[in-house]
Amino acid sequence: MSRLISKKVDASYYRQLVSGQKTFELRLADWDCQPGDRLRLIEVDDQTHEPTGRWLECTAGSVLKTNELDFFPQSQVNQFGYQIISLIDIKQVQPDNQTD
Q1: Those residues with Cβ within 8 angstroms of residue 48's Cβ, 6 or more apart along the chain or in another chain
Q2: Of 46, 42, 45, 66, which is closest to residue 54 (Cα–Cα)?
Q3: What whole-number distance in Å separates Cα of residue 41 and Cα of residue 43?
């Protein structure tokens, strides 16, 4: 069953979310989030961190927890960190020699 979870988001990121420029959230995994959960993202002022009175709601799609990953050696993760990439305008491309 999905839940409604409220979290704060800085105004600069809030504007990017509203415009559609930002299509992901990077959060510390100190709370449980599952696909289908509703997120209420409450805009806070970038300087004061006080709520501005605006918020948006969205649904969590895929949730990836990095502590469950073993894609890379920990030494490389420590050196480079992770890069989170938002994917937009996804199109499936099939090789010319395959059909549905």
Answers
A1: none
A2: 42
A3: 6
Q: Taking Cα atoms as reference points, which of 86, 85, 82 lies closest to residue 66?
A: 82
Alpha carbon 34 to its chain centroid, in Å, reads 12
The CATH number for 4-80, chosen from 3.40.1570.10, 3.40.50.300, 2.30.130.30, 3.30.200.20, is 2.30.130.30
CA distance readout (Å), 36 to 15, 31, 82: 23, 15, 24
This prediction's pTM: 0.80
- Asked if 80 and 37 touch (Cβ cutoff 8 Å), the reply is no
Q: What is the pLDDT of residues 7-25, one digit of tens each?
A: 999 999 999 999 999 999 9
